[in-house]
Amino acid sequence: MDFTHINEEGRARMVDVSGKTDSERVAEARAVVRMQPQTLEAIRSGGVKKGDVLAVAQVAGIMAAKQTSALVPMCHPLMLTAVDISFNFDQENNRIIIHSRVKTTGKTGVEMEAMTAAAVAALTIYDMAKAIDRWMVIEEVLLVEKSGGKSGHVKRSDSQ
User: Fold this and answer.
1) How far is CA 114 from the centre of its chain?
2) Distance from chain centroid for Cα 41
3) Is 80 exceeded by the pLDDT of residue 1?
4) pLDDT tens digit string along 45-65?
5) What is the CATH number of the domain that holds 108?
6) Is 2 part of a structural domain of the chain?
7) DSSP alpha helix (H) spans, 7-52
8) pLDDT the model gives residue 13
């Protein structure tokens, strides 16, 4: 089996994408943070002492997308053209659902940037509200959809 990220000496390498053509790349990811009902209400109503939880998580997610290549060893540094983070309250299940959408025009996709953005936004929600609820759970971080490049448009079949 030939590994794409291993060189002839068996050592890690970043794949050479210089021969690929540029295309518009878009990826959407999701993360979910489950918490106690009173924690969800405190976040929703602005009652967390550290400040506006979702505003801080939104900025953290954007910053994380831009820093993905510094965090994930085999990711190429990318010039991102757009990053958007949004939040939905799921009152019934005491969750905040985080959605991230990342775009670029380039030789490689932005799936890792979208997932990193959603994950760091989730971690930031935890950090901002942990004084109220230390037992919050980040339930999932997953790719929802991507487009561009050789594989084209792909959408998760079980996406919400």
Assistant:
1) 4
2) 24
3) no
4) 999 999 999 999 999 999 999
5) 3.30.70.640
6) no
7) 37-45
8) 80
CA 107, CA 26: separation in Å to the nearest integer? Answer: 12
SS3 helix, strand, coil % of the chain, rounded to 5?
Answer: 30, 30, 40
As a whole number of angstroms, the distance between CA 94 and CA 67 comes to 30
Task: Answer whether 129's CB lies under 8 Å from 136's CB.
Answer: yes
Judge whether residue 4 has pLDDT over 90: no
Residues acting as catalytic residues: 127
Domain that holds residue 102: 36-148
How many structural domains comprise the chain?
1
The answer to whether residue 1 sits within a structural domain is no
Residue 42: inside a domain:
yes
Asked if residue 30 belongs to a domain, the reply is no
84 forms beta bridges with 101
pLDDT of residue 9: 80
Weakest mean pLDDT among 6-15, 96-105, 110-119, 145-154 = 6-15
Residues 6+ apart with CB under 8 A from 72: 112, 116
User: pTM of whole model > 0.90?
Assistant: yes
